[in-house]
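Why do we care about 3D structure at all? Because function follows from shape, and shape follows, mostly, from sequence. That is the central idea of this module. The next example makes it concrete: a single protein chain, its amino acid sequence, and then its structure expressed as tokens.
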Amino acid sequence: MEPRYDTLFYDGQCPLCAREIATLRKLQKGHLIFADIHQQTALDALPEKELLLRRLHLMTWTGEWVTGLHANVRAWSHTPVGFMFKPLLWPGIFQVARKVYERWADRRYDRKYGCAVCSAGEPG
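And the structure:
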């Protein structure tokens, strides 16, 4: 049987993201590929760069895109501790966990890239 690899797209310029990716690299069982968004050259085949930076994105081995909390849980499912993340997708817990994740992700993005995005749209 052919191995099935998921690809996790992450922000390589984010120190917190880098720590989590380092942990995932150590713990993963070998079927997770890591792709730094800032080093991607064929972005036309990917979602818009801003979207990739705003939320965690994972492309499954079948080509399906999984984002946000679902992407995080799927990435961790490639590790021996993945079972600890699955309850985040349970009804009731998911609604709260998703709001917390999205609020955190938006704040992280706005602090790191907010000014750069605003100034990029202004005439130079």
